[in-house]
Amino acid sequence: MLDSATLYYASAAMMAVMTLLNYLTWRTSKNTPGTLIYIFYPMMMFAAVGSFALHGYLNNIASISIANSLFFCSSIIHALAIRQFFADKSAGFKVFSAITALFAVMMIVLAFNESSLRSRILLSDLQHILEAIFLLYLFIKYGYKSYPNGSIVYILILTIITFVFTGRTLLMGDINTAKLLSGNWFSITLFINGVIAPMFYATGMALLCNERREQNLNQLTEKAQKDLEIRGLFLSTISHEIRTPLNGILGSAQLMMNQSSDPRDKPYCEAIINSAESLNLLVDKVLDYASLDQHNEALYEEDVEFKTWLHNLCLLLSPLAEQKRLHFELVYNLPEQACYYCDQQKLRQIIINLMGNAIKFTDKGEVKICVDLVKEQQLEHTIRISVVDSGPGIEADEIEYLTEPYVQSSAGKEKGGTGLGLAITSRLLDKLGSHLDITSELGKGSSFSFDINLTLGELSLVEQRHQSKEYLTGLDILLVEDLDLNQKIAIEFMADDEHKIKLARDGQSAITLMKQHHFDVVLLDMNLPDLTGQEVLKTLKGIEHKNQRTPVLAFTASLSPDEIKEYFSLGIKDIVGKPIKQQKLRQALSDSQNNQTPIIAVELSDVLYDETAAETLTSSFSDDEVSSIYNEFVLSARNKLVRAQQLLGENKEQCIKLLHRQASTALQLGFNRYGAELKKIERRLLDNKPLKEPLSDVIVLWQDSLEQYLKHVRSELS
Questions:
Q1: How far apart are CA 120 and CA 196, in angstroms?
Q2: For 482, what's the count of Cα atoms within 13 Å in the CB-facing half-sphere?
Q3: What pTM value is reported for the model?
């Protein structure tokens, strides 16, 4: 074995290294209990080892007493540090300290009585065993489950120490100083306790602190996640609470504007309406942004025919661009049959956000979306999607902050908005492994672009595109509809078949567009804010326009026999009933281009609530949007009925308009019996027929319908 001098030097060196390591551990974990005290453990052991080495030269009672006292103090410091780390409140430490102090006194007494060296070594061994057992108790009770890595290191070395010192206690016979320093038992125990143990202790404490930091981080992460969930729940709740009075504000302001004969009232009502709509938009955007924090779902990738998909996406937004008289263009520079796996929902939201912003901020000129192939690999393409506009441009010092939430450019502040659109876009791009690049020049326009890696899909699917002979695609269609919900659904359905759509929200706009453009077919709502569909058709007969031979389809929920007879007498080609069904709409558009006999029947189940109605909406809206649509309708329905009752005696025309809008939305959302009853009341009012009990029965019917709807919602949740 190694000689005693070498072991003393090695032990002293290890104690110095352990002191340094413990100090570094404390610096990175200053808030962790026990780490500061732990620095003094190797320092005290270093002093004890030095005292024992000095005793070899002095060999007197004072030197051995000091050495043993330092050794026993270091043992107590070691146990205290571990106890503080685990926050142990038991009496075990007090018992251990008391026994160690007793051993220290006994050691001094034995030294003064010049007892045999074997007796003093026995006391030292017992103290080592006691320390090891107490520390093993702490690690098994507190550490093994919570701090497995650090505990394994500690338990291993403490077990070795226990066996070694137990073996020396039981097996070493009587011995003197000369034999002790040259014997194996002294060398083994000094090597284990002075050289090996410090390495394990320093490593073990570092691992314990690292695991404690990891636990703290996990706790903070869990807390942050819970905070996000609570924030999301709060936002969802408060948004519905805000929307209810908002609906009242919007409705009241519109009624005031329509009823008032004083022109001075109009700008004030418009200000109220614009403010309420801006607040509603802010609520929606805040919820969208919050939902990105709440959900960390995996990408849902599916096979997409890219050119067709982009073309259909552009069809959704081109009516908005055309309303502002902007040139809207898709510049597609990918292979014609490019087919990719991608999360089309996220990519769709990104592109719609960027193109919507470009159309919003551009008052003249053009908006175009450019798709280019940047890098081509065997199974993957890197493509660049850019949205370019000729808008006012953005200040250079504003660009870097635009993707931060609630930050707007100067142009954005003028146009209004939430300042969340680009923040949401940036967060979505992060999820797709990309980022948004913005370039702009004042007075010339801006470009928003991103590069994305897409895996090649099944190209064979492209060959099957639109081989069906059952319906037509690519028609030029004028959609005349004032309800946003019906606009959205109809445009989504028609975009699936690559139809090109222009949008008119009232009768006068429809007449203007029909003077300027030729269409393959016109979808005409028969009850518009300014004119009825019948009035639009009668006006068109007396003027020159480009659609003398264009088939017109009635887009309506008013389907009484007399109304149907009137529609056909005015030259209506076919009727697309509401609620909108994609197959019926598709068939009517195809039949409008030939001499097929119109199919008037509209399948409408006579039920309080049609559970399949939501399926139509989910093809056009996200789950959150569908929920919002239903919530807004349910929360405001009774108030609108009460308002209709008030208007019945005050302003019959406004009452009919309110009932019409309410009936159309009710039928689209699946409240069939309620919507049908509202249509009957609307028809009687139009025919100047008296009502038996004005709207009292329909309020009861609404309560029954609402109860049936809530039962369905509860069953879905359970």
A1: 23
A2: 20
A3: 0.43
